[in-house]
Each structure stands twice: as C-alpha cells, then as structure tokens.
Hints:
The chain is mainly alpha-helical and about 140 residues long. It contains six helices and four strands. The protein has helices at about 10-25, 35-50, 70-80, 85-105, 110-115, 120-130; strands spanning about 50-55, 60, 135, 140. It has a two-stranded antiparallel sheet. The protein has a two-stranded antiparallel ribbon with strand order 3-4. The longest helix is centred in the middle third of the chain and has 22 residues, at about 85-105. It is rod-shaped.
Amino acid sequence: MNLITADDRLRLTTDIHLDQIERLAKDLKADGQGLLPLLGNFIHLTALLLGYDWLAGKPNREVIYYQNREQQIIDDEQRHPNSNFLMGKIEHDTRVTFIKDLHSKGMRISQIARVLNQTETFVKNVLVRQGIIARQKNVKRT
C-alpha cells in the first residue's frame, strides 16, 4: 500500500493475489498437492509488483526502490564489512613499507615525499614512528 506507483488497479489485483495465496496455502496438503497453483500465484504477484501488466502484456510501471540513510549505511556495511577502515589500513601499511624501503636504499626524505606524492612531514612522522629516525627536541633528525 506504500508503493508510490500504486494505483487502484494494482492495489486490487495485489489484494486478489494475496487472498488467493492465503487460501491456497491453507489448502496445501502434506504430500505437496496444491503447490503448483500456489507457486503460480507467487510468480504472478511478483510480476505485478515488478510492473508487468498482464492485461496489456507488457510492463507499465517502473520499480522504485527507496532507502533512508540508516538503511543505506546498514546495506553498505553488510556488502563491504569494514571496507573503508580495512582499505585505509592497507593503503597506510603500503605507504609505510614503501617509505621504509626507499629510506633503506638511501633516498632522502624530500625525495621520498616527491616520489610518493606525500608531504615531508608525513614521511618524517612515519619514519619516527617506525623507529628509523629519532626526534631531537622538536626537530626530527634525518
């Protein structure tokens, strides 16, 4: 009933199929007798909700999908759990590896910064945190 594109005919046919599905589900036997008409009604109902018009023989509605912000966040987290955090960590770890490797090959901090397109402060901070260079008062000794 909350569909934006729902008109009276869609509501009527949807109600008819839901009532028929309910009736067929009650009449379903343990041996599976009556299952085929039930499945047929489910398929018919799905087609109606996706916009197919059985009388016209073609789709006459577009499916509208709506999410509020909270639902979108939940979906994103389920599809890509912790992806932003993990990708950020992987990128940072890769930068640290490159900085350490380039520094061990004798490159100066300014050269490493240019190669990795990072600031010299970032490169120095990484090297200090890795214990490769030491702070001398408020200056990082390179």
